[in-house]
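Consider the tokenized backbone below.
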């Protein structure tokens, strides 16, 4: 029997035990439900990826991305802005769990860290002071160049500094690196492209880009080697979710603009980077989406092949004909553009294994009674150059007695039928079906699908066996692992959301893209006119010089440039010159050269006419006073001639502005080409050309008003 004292203590013991058990259970539940927290280190000065805003908060692409992934995956993060080098050291010593800092994935870093899937595709660019004359790596010989430690720009500069004979100064942050160039201690800085572009365009940094973007590598999130697979897996899963629900793109656009495209180019993993040309208007194989990114079966396929085989790609949307010419001229390495494999083309190109089996169909207006080839007799049929549909129509046109009207893009071909100029269009089946079913184009299929050929990826004949083998191997891998089928289903397996094709709907959805095209048009025009003005003045002075040899030089130049159509000159500059000289040239550079050479001839004549309009007695009077020819020309003749020439100069500017539209033929995405690209997606050619026309009219009207104002001021003294 228990003692009285013990009986009194028992309830207290049980109560204490109960509290202990209850407390332990609570603690265990709390532990089970507690959200896991990771310490993430980052840089301090790498805008737009990580930087402090006006409130002292760390913001940027990296910051918003890791916070969004944490929310998606149900963990918390503590951000530690340590600086790049300190962040890596902290990760090595396990002071932090991960690092996100615009960090390039390299083989060397893979020895120490495990990386996530790439979340950003970068590149390298060289920037110089606004007033600098440096425009190439060759100009750096004997000079000092600034780089930031740990960046892709620093790695690239290190790789070429011996070749070009410059030295490097290394900085811990971007701000001091930029200031070193601004102060003149360094003549240039190598930096990751998005960082430099953000600093110049959004922050007003007094530097300018001096080179085209070099193919870059990928940014990744890092954890210590073999220590945190859980965090890495959650990052990859969250990143995939953000990409699928649009959050990822929204973050990119917030800091890089609506044209942000982080997947256009695939970085090289193990091999070199290849330039791949494509069409611009061949949905669902290649077309621009509402964000300005090139998408479609071909685009997804070549990117997946490149990733599978470890080589890099740079996409060049040129248009079908220009793409083939660029491949012949070795301006590009390959072409993927829904290109049918034919015996004729095999004479010029080597093809991959077929990646798509197509077919041909005839479409007519929705209210048309035509339902067979026999109904086409005596009528006109629309086709697009280079397509399987065009080849088929050509093969039967004599049998059925119809004529062909050929177009360079599908959108205009469809509109020709809708407008009634042609009664039908022959097109590759998947393209026509996509336009009718997915985009709501007002046509209908009038015939069953004809047996067609195969699409292949082309390289120049006997010149790129290595690339062709990798394409074939990658294609086989994608077909075996199911990726190929997924790509097809993305574009052919379900209905596609149609765009708002009304006048105001097109403006609302595409105003940023249109303004970018207009800005590029104006920029190219200004650059061309400045160069043309300098050249035109020299040629004009040659034409009025007493020296007969100079007269002949001026006459020959003007006659050649005025005699060659601008489109022929554009093709010559972009395709022939690189082929003859063994160089590669961007469409922008080729476009500026073309317009400059053309406009210089007309400006030279304007200059000559202005000088001739000044009374010849004024030259005689100046000479009689003992002035030299040059002094008389500079002090007496030219001031009067310039007043006469001002309206003509402005008029030539307007003409050059309109001439930029011709450059779309070489893939330059100015205002007209921008319109074509939007039409290729929406098929709303009527409203879109109205919008494009109004934009040209507004700009040209403003220039005309400026011209008249200048003319009036000069006349009034």
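A designed sequence for it:
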């Amino acid at each position: 029997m228990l003692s009285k004292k013990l009986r009194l203590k028992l309830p207290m013991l049980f109560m204490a035990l109960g509290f202990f058990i209850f407390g332990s259970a609570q603690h265990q539940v709390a532990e089970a439900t507690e959200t896991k927290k990771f310490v993430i280190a980052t840089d301090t000065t790498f805008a737009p990826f990580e930087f402090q805003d006006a409130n002292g908060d760390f913001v940027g692409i990296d910051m918003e991305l890791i916070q969004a992934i944490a929310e998606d995956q149900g963990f918390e993060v503590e951000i530690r802005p340590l600086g790049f080098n300190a962040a890596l050291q902290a990760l090595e010593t396990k002071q932090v769990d991960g690092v996100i800092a615009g960090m390039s994935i390299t083989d060397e870093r893979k020895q120490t860290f495990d990386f996530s899937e790439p979340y950003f595709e970068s590149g390298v660019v060289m920037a110089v002071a606004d007033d600098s004359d440096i425009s190439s790596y060759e100009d750096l010989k004997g000079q000092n160049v600034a780089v930031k430690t740990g960046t892709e720009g620093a790695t690239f500069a290190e790789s070429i500094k011996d070749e070009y004979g410059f030295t490097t100064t290394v900085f811990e942050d971007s701000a001091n690196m930029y200031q070193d160039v601004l102060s003149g201690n360094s003549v240039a800085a190598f930096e990751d492209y998005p960082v430099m572009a953000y600093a110049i365009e959004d922050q007003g940094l007094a530097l300018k880009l001096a080179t085209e973007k070099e193919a870059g590598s990928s940014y990744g999130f890092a954890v210590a080697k073999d220590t945190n697979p859980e965090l890495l897996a959650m990052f990859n899963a969250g990143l995939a979710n953000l990409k699928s629900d649009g959050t990822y793109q929204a973050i990119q656009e917030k800091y890089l603009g609506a044209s942000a495209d982080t997947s256009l180019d695939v970085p090289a993993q193990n091999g070199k980077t290849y330039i791949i040309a494509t069409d611009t208007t061949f949905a669902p194989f290649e077309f621009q989406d509402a964000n300005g990114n090139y998408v479609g079966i071909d685009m997804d396929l070549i990117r997946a092949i490149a990733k599978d085989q470890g080589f890099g790609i740079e996409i060049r949307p040129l248009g079908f004909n220009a793409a083939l010419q660029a491949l012949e001229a070795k301006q590009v390495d390959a072409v993927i553009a829904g290109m049918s494999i034919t015996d004729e083309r095999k004479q010029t190109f080597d093809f991959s294994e077929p990646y798509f089996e197509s077919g041909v169909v005839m479409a007519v207006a929705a209210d048309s009674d035509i339902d067979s080839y026999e109904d086409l007799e005596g009528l006109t049929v629309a086709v697009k150059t280079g397509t399987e549909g065009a080849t088929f129509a050509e093969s039967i046109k004599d049998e059925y007695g119809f004529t062909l009207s050929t177009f360079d893009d599908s959108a205009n071909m469809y509109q020709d039928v809708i407008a009634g100029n042609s009664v039908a269009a022959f097109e590759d089946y998947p393209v026509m079906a996509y336009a009718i079913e997915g985009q709501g184009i007002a046509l209908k299929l009038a015939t069953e699908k004809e047996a067609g050929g195969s699409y292949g990826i082309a390289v120049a004949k006997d010149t790129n066996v290595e690339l062709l083998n990798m394409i074939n191997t990658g294609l086989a891998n994608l077909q075996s692992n199911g990726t190929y089928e997924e790509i097809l289903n993305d574009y052919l397996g379900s209905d596609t959301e149609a765009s708002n094709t009304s006048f105001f709907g097109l403006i609302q959805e595409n105003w940023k893209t249109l303004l970018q095209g207009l800005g590029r048009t104006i920029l190219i025009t200004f650059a061309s006119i400045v160069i043309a003005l300098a050249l035109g003045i020299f040629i004009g002075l040659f034409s009025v010089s007493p020296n007969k040899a100079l007269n002949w030089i001026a006459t020959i130049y003007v006659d050649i440039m005025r005699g060659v159509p601008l489109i022929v000159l554009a093709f010559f500059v972009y395709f022939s010159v690189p082929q003859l000289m063994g160089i590669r040239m961007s469409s922008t550079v080729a476009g500026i050269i073309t317009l400059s050479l053309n406009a210089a001839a007309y400006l030279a004549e304007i200059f000559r006419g202005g000088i001739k309009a000044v009374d010849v007695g004024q030259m005689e009077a100046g000479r009689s006073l003992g002035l030299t020819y040059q002094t008389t020309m500079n002090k007496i003749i030219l001031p009067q001639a310039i007043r006469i020439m001002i309206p003509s100069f402005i008029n030539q500017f307007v003409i050059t502005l309109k001439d930029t539209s011709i450059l779309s033929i070489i893939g330059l995405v100015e205002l007209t080409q921008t319109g074509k690209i939007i039409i290729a997606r929406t098929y709303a050619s009527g409203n879109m050309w109205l919008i494009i026309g109004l934009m040209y009219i507004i700009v040209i009207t403003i220039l005309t008003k400026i011209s008249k104002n200048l003319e009036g001021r000069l006349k009034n003294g």
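The first helix runs from residue 4 to 33.
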